[in-house]
Amino acid sequence: MNIAFIAHDRKKEEMVNFVLAYEPVFTGHTLYSTGTTGMRIMEQTSLTINRFMSGPLGGDQQIGALVATNEMDLIIFLRDPLMAQPHEPDIIALLRLCDVQGIPVATNVATAELLVKALERGDFAWRELVHKYKPE
């Protein structure tokens, strides 16, 4: 599975702690992240993260490109709802693309935990069918 991690500045520590708690579940999957979030995760875990640019510099859009082509399976995006983001249009566009493509996305740790538990149980096997029958 292709899984992306995105976290706003005040949520980065929460993301690192979350990924640490579920590191065994993420092992064996292809992981992506925006720049600083991915660096912080790799510093604290043994996971390899394919890092894109920082979110405000286009990283959200780079992940969005994978969503648009249905190459992303799950996104954990810990948003800071109490802080204005200069790249809010990019964030809204990414979330809209997830809705269009039917990509599961969590925007808080409570929902992220539910999705990771589902991943751990194998509940995302339907995504393999999406990839298998994707028109080339």
Explain what the structure shows:
By secondary structure, the chain is α/β, with parallel strands linked by helices. It has a single domain (2-132), classed as 3-Layer(aba) Sandwich (Rossmann fold). It is built from 7 helices and 5 strands; from the N terminus they run E-H-H-E-H-E-H-E-H-E-H-H. The chain has a 5-stranded parallel beta sheet with strand order 3-2-1-4-5, with helices on both faces. Strand 4, helix 5 (88-101) and strand 5 (105-106) form a beta-alpha-beta unit. Helix 1 packs across helix 3 (35-44) and helix 4 runs parallel beside helix 5. The mean pLDDT is 91.
Features:
136 residues, alpha/beta, Rossmann fold, 5 strands, MGS-like_dom, Methylgl_synth
Residue share in helices? 40-55%
Secondary-structure class:
alpha/beta
Q: Write the CATH architecture name.
A: 3-Layer(aba) Sandwich
Q: So how many helices? A: 7
Total strand segments = 5
